[in-house]
């Protein structure tokens, strides 16, 4: 599938290394928009495990979708997984750090929704975003996602004792895609 500038495909195991780098660099990228990144030092230390990417690619209930340009340069990616008969979940939405704010993220997210709807017949897409990232949560809102009211815990153990703001968590959001 292509979108003038973007070619979409399902990642294979050979993509795992470059995708790990893309995701890690995108999450670590600085951004002048207040609150977009949330906690800058937390984002700067974000690490991605290549084995997690491999596992997502090999698992029959999930995929990583890749967006590239006509020279096959990786521009973005997104993880999709079938949660149940009704719902798929989206994660690891990431755009090449030098291509942010160009509309790629919106297109990659739309592709993830369409892929999940067509492949698994789901009617709802779920995702979450860090509670400290207000503008990103609003961005998902403009893409049609609504807060479900549920909050998921932040994995405190993963940040080696760093002091975190009270109440830091993931805000759960959903969108109907039927
Ligand atoms: C989140 C992410 C994927 C978005 O990708 P992107 O290609 O930059 O997104 P888009 O260009 O489609 O949208 C950027 C938004 O910022 C807005 N924007 C652009 N320049 C801006 C500026 N100077 N000031 C304020 N907003 C601005 C755009 O208007 C757009 O919002 P809109 O489409 O509602 O109008 C990207 O920032 C990323 O890779 N971040 C790191 C990984 C991450 O945080 N993933 C999400 C985890 S939940």
UniProtKB/TrEMBL annotation:
A Pfam family it matches: Acetyltransf_1
Keyword NAD: no
Keywords, ordered alphabetically: Transferase
Keyword Nucleotide-binding: no
InterPro entries in the record: Acyl_CoA_acyltransferase, GNAT_dom, NAT_camello-type
CDD domains in the cross-refs: NAT_SF (cd04301)
Domain N-acetyltransferase: 6-178
Gene3D superfamilies the record matches: 3.40.630.30
Coiled coil region boundaries: none
Entry superkingdom: Eukaryota
The name this protein goes by in its record: N-acetyltransferase domain-containing protein
